Amino acid sequence: MPMLLNLPKLIPDQTLYSWCGWVQAWNGLGPVATSRCLFGSPSAALMHDFPSFLGLFTERTEKKLGEARAVALRHTLLGYFLPLAPASLAEHLLQCVVIGSVPDLKMKLGIPASRIGGRHPLKGCPACFEEDEGRHGFAYWHVAEQLPSVMVCRKHRRPLQIAWDPVTPVHRRGWLLPKRGLKRDWIEVPVTTDEQMERLLSVATLSVHFAAMEPGTLDPRVLAKTYQLALRGRGLATEKGSLRIAALVRATRSHYRGIEDVPGFEALGSITADWPGLAGALARRRPRPGHPLKHILLLSMLFDTWAEFRETYSEALAATEEPIHSPAIDSHAVQLEAFRQNVIDGDSIRAASAKAGICTTTGVKWATQLGLTFTARTKSFTEAQKRKARRKLLAGSDVDDVATEFSVSRITINRMLGSDPSLQEAWRFARFVATRTQVRKRFQALLATHPNLPVKALRSIRGNGYMWLYRHDRPWLLDHLPALWQPSRLR
Predict the structure, then answer these.
(1) The whole model's pTM is what?
(2) Under a CB-based contact definition with an 8 Å cutoff, are residues 388 and 416 in contact?
(3) In sequence order, what are the residues at sequence separation of 6 or more whose Cβ sits closer than 8 angstroms to the Cβ of residue 104?
(4) What is the pLDDT of residues 173-197, one digit of tens each?
(5) What distances in angstroms separate CA 167 from CA 174, 182, 448, one per listed residue?
(6) Whole-angstrom Cα distance, residue 337 to residue 332?
(7) Residue 73 in contact with residue 83, Cβ under 8 Å?
(8) Selection from 249, 144, 153, 146 nearest residue 197 by Cα
């Protein structure tokens, strides 16, 4: 392993991704070599939102940048999502990103189900970049400006700029840094009025407070009672907790007028007369899980300050009759750590797997994820075949088709995807693009066959694809139904 000679300091509000980019620039190594040196993984250093292999990272940097937990919570996006997670799940995920990686981390955090979107584009303030260069000699990505609900710079009271790169993060082989690195397009967040700026500044301030909370701090049931107290105080809910829908819709639309057009804030479009959207899901007696952005939007509308919210939350917590219990801690992290220690102590993969209570195949997968050195068994699935299978998966081929072509089991291909988060995400994206192309073609053919049919009639035709496009490709659907759609119907 190459020795890194120059390790810059980690600035308190700098992202870990940004720091890794400067390590690569200062040492002249390739991106993969830099990532392997720091994390023992070829891609961990290139993931800009969530961390992995932080245990090896802190060992190799001799903890000069801090403990793994602090790095995860204060220099990545993980700290933004964990206050709402059950305490046991939050600790489990933290242990997992220290020991290795969590390929389904976004799924465990509920990001796909939130319909907010799991791609977190890098953002920054040009004025901050100039100040960074004057103070530190280089510009860097600020953690607070990467939070999904932050779209303006609190210090300079100006919209952030999005570093837009059409290449998905799993396909990048380098860093996007504020003033160097890979090519990108800058897109300024659209803020057209002073009122919108004030609203977004309030959301940004609350977002920073929210992300600074400890994991597992907020219980959804207590939060729901907190919202109900605030809604009753504003005349938007009855004493029994029923929402005054019409008044709530008017208040929300008035408060966030124009902001639903800001990238990432499309959730505000769900505030309609027939469904309260934002408050309806989060403030009910048995609340649904919600993305932090949705909670912060509701907080900003109901509370003038973070201190006011915390006081009301404490009041709701004191009035909670049911005890708040966290589910039992998942034993996976404990099992994984025991396996790792057994291999380090000299056990074979088979022996370590037996002691940990897992099969040898799972042990091989874990050892690979953890970067442990071991002698692999002779396999019929050769490295050359794996490379070909990988190309097929990157192109979006079906798992069963790939397994059949290379005469291996479907489980083998699934394990190949599971052990490589970058490959898995690229495969899922390719499958999504293929599905989108098919559904678009089918819907266009339907429109060509029935050019004057209203939407309701089109939706009754078998295999029309309307709902898939509505959920996953709404802008395209709107563009191809100009005569039938009214903008208000999209909300």
Answers:
(1) 0.65
(2) no
(3) none
(4) 888 899 888 888 898 888 888 888 9
(5) 11, 10, 33
(6) 9
(7) no
(8) 153
